[in-house]
Known about the structure:
Blueprint (H helix, E strand, L loop, with lengths): L2 E6 L16 H18 L3 E4 L12 H14 L4 E8 L9 E6 L5 H19 L3 E7 L2 H4 L5 E8 L3 H7 L2 H18 L17 E2 L2 E2 L5 E4 L2 E4 L1 H7 L3 E5 L4 E5 L7
Parallel strand pairs: 1-2, 1-3, 3-6, 4-5
Antiparallel strand pairs: 4-6, 7-8, 9-10, 11-12
Bound molecules: zinc ion (ZN).
Amino acid sequence: xxxxxxxxxxxxxxxxxxxxxxxxxxxxxxxxxxxxxxxxxxxxxxxxxxxxxxxxxxxxxxxxxxxxxxxxxxxxxxxxxxxxxxxxxxxxxxxxxxxxxxxxxxxxxxxxxxxxxxxxxxxxxxxxxxxxxxxxxxxxxxxxxxxxxxxxxxxxxxxxxxxxxxxxxxxxxxxxxxxxxxxxxxxxxxxxxxxxxxxxxxxxxxxxxxxxxxxxxxxxxxxxxxxxxxxxxxxxxxxxxxxxxxxxxxxxxxx
Length: 255
Ligand SMILES: [Zn+2]
């Protein structure tokens, strides 16, 4: 089974770029990674996330942050690493989509191939300016041992593109584009991509739960706690001192 590590850029202490209206890069990258992950899982691809909520498992320091992400991908033996970002520039007119692979390495060819596929699908689906595929010595591209890609979906520093990034429909197009590229990369079938789920659907308060990773194992449903609680409008917080997970849900759901 093909295994992909999805890396939602930034998170926790690090908001990443912040748009004019206050949209944070870390929230966009997380939403895109989780939804992309659900499409990949439906298509028979195993997905590992470097983070699947706003809490991060690494210290609040940039080098340890990036090292932590690479360690997760390397230890999971992923076949492909995809770091998801939104761009930012001093010039508010800068716009468009670009995708990176690593500069010099044996795995460069596979990484460059994945980068081309992702860029092509994103440009076709989002219709933004095609800034092309590029190479760079980015930490997460260099220190991961598998083919690795970093994609910049659009510019948060461009008010039009920030507006687009805030729309769930626009993000869904990006997620499906990335998923389609990954499915093509592994030579798998695109048949399952447009289905919400090939198995039983998880529906929460009448809405298909695209942002809640879940599995059914031997007839029991296992959901990822933080996303599940948050989809119910609640909060879950880790208390390091007492080693407890504190969950708070609105009264109406307790009944
Ligand atoms: Zn970023």
